[in-house]
Protein 1
Amino acid sequence: MNAPAYNFAYLDEQTKRMIRRAILKAITIPGYQVPFASREMPMPYGWGTGGVQVTAAILGPADVLKVIDQGSDDTTNAISIRKFFAKTAGVATTTATDAATVIQTRHRIPETALHENQVLVYQVPIPEPLRFLEPRETETRRMHALAEYGLMHVKLYEDIARFGHIATAYAYPVKVNARYVMDPSPTPKFDNPKMDNCPALQLFGAGREKRIYAIPPYTKVVSLDFEDHPFEPYRFNAPCALCGAENSYLDEIVTDDKGSRMFVCSDTDYCEGRQTAGHHGSLSAAPYKEKAGSHG
Amino acid sequence: MTTIAELPPGFADKVLSAQSTFRSVMDAMARPGSVQRIVPGAGTPETMMRGTAAIALTLFDHDTPLWLDSRMAESSGVVKWLKFHTGAPVVQNSSVASFALISDGGALPPLERFAFGTSEYPDRSTTLILQVERLDAGRSFELRGPGIDGAATLQAAIEPFDLFERLHVNEALFPRGIDVVLVADDAVVAIPRTTRVMSKGS
């Protein structure tokens, strides 16, 4: 019973060709959402079916795959997708950002700067940045065709009128190559500046919504804002409790029912790397250390 | 009459060869002007270069109408090979083609004859696959645009000589436009519609 049950990287070749053609058109029209015939995947919508299809279409035996979920290599979603491709494609996997050639991500961009030989694949739930402002696909498609993005600026303006600042904290809209307004997927706006002029190719897959889009390397990506209310990345005002990092994106973890909490890097690989290099935070002896004995 | 048995073969390993060919084309498209290599793994019918054949086997199928220039269309070997290995329909009307294969650049029809896509669906455009003489020597061009860190230099001997002047329509039409893949044997360079090309002389 050694016959392989699946094709290499799970998808059949006809599906891969269709996705590959969509990826090529996505690269040629930065930020434009290319419709594709999304397949059912052996996981529920919302678990990265779009990202998985993009990864399956580009992955080769020489690739080294890293999968993160909210910055973490160790969550259920990340582990199961990593195992999925280790099983169906036999590719090497890693948690080290530097060592990966393909990184599939849900809701974060790694802290470590990406390089030219990498492809970052985003899992996208709702690819249309205008969808909550205009529910009709025919209308949003026309708005993109005419580059009519006034409605988005009105939305951001209403944020300012109501809260005094732009209150959008994630999925913060960007303009790609001075043309298409694009949803960066629900990444925190802290990550938006990393998309600009990035040396790595960025691909976005939305399985349920059947869209693929892309940002080529070295492409201008600007977060929408106003002259008097410029874009500002948000970060909790604290160092990481484990590695002491002052410039990474932090998760807030509630530690008891009396209001105690700690802030730790959301990017686990970055945090572990810093701890291995000797950086320590105020809570370096946290429960985290018990299972990660290799980090001493 | 050519029988099936006499056709040049397709990929020996169709899964992994298609994957590696696609990655070369994807890298070429993502980094315009960079010369990517295709590992040849298939036979080639007459008038078709190794790179073109690999791209055909990687991207063409029943969903992609093809337009062939007269030199390719007149070669029954090419038509039969494409039909047998890809199943892609060959169309006479270039404005509905997903891909156009050009072996004789000098006879490239006006670009308006191909599909530019629509404003709503700019992806529904023709990708030109143009066989050229060389992609490692020849006239010098400076490329700018997404995918390029500053400026890239391409040295190429291509026909038609005014290809990049003709591609200036991409600037006015964007997001509609024509994407071009240049092939010289196993070397591939892509010029997506976002790339601006300036001649630097020879």
Note: The longest strand of chain A covers residues 64-69.
Protein 2
Amino acid sequence: MGKRVLLIEDEPNIIEAISFILSRDGWTVHTHEDGVTAMEKVASMPPDMIILDVMLPGRSGFDILRDLRSQEISKDIPIMMLTARGQDKDRELALRLGATHFMTKPFSNGEVRDHVRNMIGA
Amino acid sequence: MSRQRNSPVFLERASYKQRRLTDAARLLPLLGMVLWAIPLLWRSDTAEGTSNATSLLYVFGVWVLLIILSALIIRKLQVDTEPSQSESSD
Amino acid sequence: MISFNVLIFAALSYVAILFAVAFLAEQRAAAGHSNWLHSPLIYTLSLSIYCTAWTFYGAVGYAARSGLEFVTIYLGPTLVMVGWWWILRKLVRIGRSQRLTSIADLISSRFGKSTLLGMVVTVISVIAATPYIALQLQSVTLSFAVFAQSGAQVWDAADFNATALWVAVGLAIFTILFGTRNLDVNERHHGIVMAIAVEAVVKLMALVAVGVFVVWGIAGGPSGMLQRIETSDITLWDQDSGRWISLIFLSGAAFICLPRMFQVLVVENADERHLRVASWAFPAYLFLMSLFVVPIAVVGLDLLPAGSNPDLFVLTVPLFEGRNGLAVLSFLGGFSSATSMVIVATIALATMVSNHIVVPVWLHLQADQHAMMSGDVRKVILLARRLSIAGILMLGFIYYRASGGGTALAAIGLISFTGTVQILPALIGGIFWRGATRIGAALGLLTGLLIWTWTLFLPSFGVEAVISQSVMELGPFGIAWLRPQALFGIAGLDPLVHGIMWSMLWNAGIFVVGSLVSFPGPLERLQGAQFVNVFERSNAAPAWTSAATGAEDLLVMSQRILGSREAQAIFETEAARQGLTGYLPEVTPEFIQHLERELAGSVGAATAHAMIGQLTGGSGVSVEDLIAVADEAAQILEYSNRLEAKSAEQEQTARALRDANTKLTALSIQKDAFLSQISHELRTPMTSIRSFSDILRDDTMSAEARERYAGIIHDEAIRLTRLLDDLLDLSVLENGQVVLNEQTGDLSSLIDRAVGAAGLHDSLLVVVRDQTAEQVTLSADLDRLVQVFINVISNARKYCDASEPRLTIDVNHTEEAYHVDFIDNGSGIAKENEQLIFEKFSRVSDQSKAGGAGLGLAICREIMHRLGGDVAYLRRKDGTAFRVTVPKAKMSAALAET
């Protein structure tokens, strides 16, 4: 059983794409679509890594990131932020708030796979 | 209000003519003044003084002339209403 | 002999016809059929008020006494008209661009809107016009008397006075009725102008008819006439060159300076091109008016018994020959000349008196209430005008009574002209010389007025009347060089030439020197530049287009003029009237008009008009001028308000500025948010497409999976396309390049189509419809309309957050339009967001999984505006409601544009 990746994202097609890429690479992918309840999801079953979208229904990805970093249980989990807005200030904000990596949509499949491998791989 | 913009060195024939027409329009009252002042020089060198009919016909003749000239100038000017106005003041 | 009663009847019927003409003209103008009123012909004829009864009757007498000198009175105006390019063209343009109401307004406005100058010019004009009006009353009265006496009645002084009084009262009534009917004081007087034009034709016809009768009926044709003229006792050409030139100058100058001439030349001018026609047509009119003067005088002297009054030959020659019809026509001609002159002169003078004396005084009295413009100023103005009209006619009547109606009156025509002409230096200097100042103008005017009064006006009352014989001969207190008719020891000149020369020399001299040594105020310099350079200014392209006009711009400007508290109160009241919250109303034409009137109260109509015109994109002054005006007006007001406590006002201004800044910041943030929003909307589908195309390329998989992933790519590509389409659609709509395709269809089926296409199949949303109300036929671009419906319905699907979402579609209609209301039971839109939802890319919050980029409502609004309708958010207690308004009438305006 590979390590667990939690994907917090609201676009069904993107969920499906990332799940496909990571599963094929041997990771176990859990998904969550709602920003408001994301924290509970992490608390109930802490993953090895989190992929977090910035624009989520209900709550901004940046807010969730800040909360994750302030909780004992999740403060060390590697987090990769995903955004489609592609502004430099978003990247800066994400890294300042403690994101491990920041990735702009659209991404190549290999890029996702390689970053996940780097972050939690052997 | 830059001047250069409004005054090219050479004008097309049409606007050149328009400008000369406005010159004519400006000169017309001066012509009238001169023509109507001329009888003052007639001064009674004869004992009779100036002939009534002559002076009457002269004054009214100048009048008709001015009316006709003015109407002619306006007619020509009216073909194109605005071109000459920008260069008019001072 | 015709009976006196018949004559009275003729006069009264004539007046009745004039009433009818004036009334009809007003009616037509009110109904918008005023094209024929605005013809160059009417304009030319209206100028004929220059020819008064003094010229109608008096010219013949003048010719009988002084030969050709009478013609100078017409030669001056002829030269001025023929030389229209010099002065009149500029005056008319200035009058139109500055919205001048009178010659006093011109002078006052040119010299920094000086109240003092306006008053001085008004006073000069009234003093100079009073004897002239008396002269008109006299000639009408005399002409009545001619008929009465030829009917063997004997008139005593009481009869004369009674007649003059009745004439004055009748004229006052007519003038008040048609001269002050319009509530809008700046309106032209269509009725009056039309009546004047009719009178112009009547008097010309009358004089020509008498002339034709004299030449062909009595003298036996032109050559016979010339022979008679040659052998006549009159010496036609024995001109003193000083008098000849002075009188041509005087009449030409008076033609420009007379308030009544300014009224018809400039104020009533509807189109600058009319001036071109009048420039030759009016000299022709004058030519015809004077052509038969000499023949009538010569024949009259030959025919009538010695001692007959030559001033009345126009009447008495036909009467003597037994041509009663002709005599009546001639009487009506003289009557026309008198009435038309008096009517226009009193209107012009009344305008000046009310605007430059009554209103300033009234404002001054109101000033302590601090609420400058609280009352209805226009009522005051109209009342002032009516009273002024009556007052001026009364002055004329009193002067007539006091002068005894004798021959002294006849001489005063030229003296009255000379008084009026004192305005000339200030006027000419004002429109040609930027260096002319208020102080120079005021000093020049007062000097001219003083010299005129001393040398001409006071002596005109007759020997010993005002100035004693000894003063005339020895000078006041024995100072010989101050003798009224021999100033500075220049004796032996004709008194009139003497008066004209000295008054004009001193007037112009002091005006120039005063202007050179004084320094003009800022507003004065600005006005000076605008008057002198009127042609350059009005040709400059307007710098601000109407699209740029926002309520904020107007507010900022108004605050500078009115003070922030007043300005904001006006804007808030208007916003409330329009049913809007906040302090900024929609900029409607009515509001602009209203605002302009408010501003005019503080800075004058001309300035207010220019400022508003500039902001709203109407032509006028340039931006620099506008800012200069605003700054200078503000400076002036500030100066006068300096002692008043201003801290509260300043704080309010500061707050308004802060608010404006907040709003700007919000807009800018919104724009950023919008750009990242569009980036998000574009990148999301591209992410899926890229990812799945990678997957399809790299992997081997089942045909089923392959098909599924290809389907996802397809869907996302469509989503991307739709977004781009929306952007393009909006851009096309906003640029107005859209082509509308009008069809006719049934509302019900349109809603069917929209509901079917709004993607409700997998949604909980229940649509409640009233099929019977929907049975209406619409005529519009139906595809576009359906697009709007789909958008509104899918918004309800996306945003309605009720547990059992329900959308009710209501249809009702007013006279002009159908209202289709889409009401859902969701939680509605927060009040602060109501303004934003129609902005493009402004989704109310980030929480949407809307699938659109927030362009939908912006597009809907653009579409509906193109269709001549609207889509609006209706605030309700519960739920969100949008109203789509579809015009019933054919969308003519919008369609015609495309």
Note: Chain C is about 65% helix and 5% strand.
